[in-house]
Amino acid sequence: MSIPQFFSQLSCGAGTSLKTGERLTVQVCAEVIDHMRVSRLSAGERFILINEPGHGWELELLAQPEKKSGALDVVVIKELSKTRQHEINLFLAVSCAERMDLSIRQATELGVTKIVPVVSERCNIRLNDTLRHNKHSRWQRIARAAAEQSCQLFEPIVLSPLSLEDALSSVNDKIFFAWEEERDYLLLQAILDNFQSSDGYPKCTLVIGPEGGFSATEAKMAMACGAIKVSLGDTILRCETASTVAIALVTQTLKMLYGTNF
């Protein structure tokens, strides 16, 4: 059974430099306390606290968490640290609430680095400033919860929605543009053609369209930005299925190419 994991800023009397075996009281955010109480963590059980990207601590709880104070009495079991050795970004056309939430959750579980919601011609969601802010906050919370559940030391950055043109113009790595009009060039082949294990630090961006797909004008614009048109297969996929399939193909293929360096 995996150990419960939480992202939170960490403060204690000695700063954030903890020592294995040390007993102390740490201060965490109220949201973590709430999650711990819901999970019914009790004295003697262990959990992981991620205090910065790629770094955290495995701790053992010595007493029930104090909801009002945010204080936890713990003993330090060990330090955890990992360096990210790849970058996989997802440009995801905005879709209805349930599908977008699912897409972000699954993308996070599969290990994406950054998620950029994009507004394209055929998006059926129109975002005013208030809705844009509320959606952005919600999507970041979903990504954090999914990173905690999938036991990752990193949570993806979720940006506020951008136009497709603005998103594409900000990219300087390989862009794979999934388009149903591309019949022949499969994403798997594109990955094999564009990455070698000697590259060192693999970076790429996946672009997934809305229900109804991207228009020919958008595809032309993407090509002008250096994108590579790719196919996800012979059938038409829902947007939440397409993003999951694409990310899984990329992560598994790059893992095969780069091995322990991925």
How are the elements arranged and paired?
Layout: E1 5-7, E2 11-12, E3 23-27, H1 30-38, E4 46-52, E5 55-61, E6 71-81, E7 87-93, H2 97-109, E8 114-119, H3 129-149, E9 157-158, E10 162-163, H4 164-169, E11 174-178, H5 187-194, E12 203-208, H6 216-224, E13 228-230, H7 239-258
Parallel strand pairs: 1-4, 7-8, 7-12, 8-9, 8-10, 11-12, 11-13
Antiparallel strand pairs: 2-3, 3-6, 4-5, 5-6
Helix pairs in contact: 2-3, 2-7, 5-7
Tell me about this structure.
The protein is an alpha/beta fold and 262 residues long. The protein folds into 2 domains: 5-81, Hypothetical PUA domain-like, domain 1 (Ribosomal Protein L25, Chain P, Beta Barrel); 87-261, Alpha/beta knot (3-Layer(aba) Sandwich), CATH 3.40.1280.10. The chain is 33% helix and 25% strand. The chain is built from 7 helices and 13 strands. It has helices at residues 30-38, 97-109, 129-149, 164-169, 187-194, 216-224, 239-258; strands at 5-7, 11-12, 23-27, 46-52, 55-61, 71-81, 87-93, 114-119, 157-158, 162-163, 174-178, 203-208, 228-230. The strands form 2 sheets. Strands 7, 8, 9, 10, 11, 12 and 13 form a 7-stranded parallel beta sheet that branches. The two termini are 25 Å apart. The relative contact order is 0.14.
